[in-house]
Amino acid sequence: MDWPHDPDGEAGSEGMRKFGHAIIAKKIDEEEDFPLSREEFVAEYGDDPIRIDYERVVPLREVFENVEGEEFDDFVEFHKALGRAMRSAGYWFYEGPEAFA
What we know:
Elements: H1 10-13, H2 20-25, E1 36-37, H3 38-45, E2 49-51, E3 57-59, H4 60-63, E4 71-72, H5 75-88
Antiparallel strand pairs: 1-4, 2-3
InterPro entries: DUF5785
Pfam family, one: DUF5785
């Protein structure tokens, strides 16, 4: 797919390789964007590349196919809905520190 910007470049991950949830969270201004409309957010950022892991990049709209809710009142509510969606779709690769001990 031709991405609107390099997923690992300045616009995609601030010049460093960041993944999934962190990339999406950076697109939100906690002070100005809430309540946040899911539909408007996807309309604005839907084609943006989201690096899921070291091998896979998907468009933001694909991640949001699994996000439940039409509007989010605050950042915490948004984060929780996004986390649930990413886990249910297999986009969450972090297993916790106990997996590495």
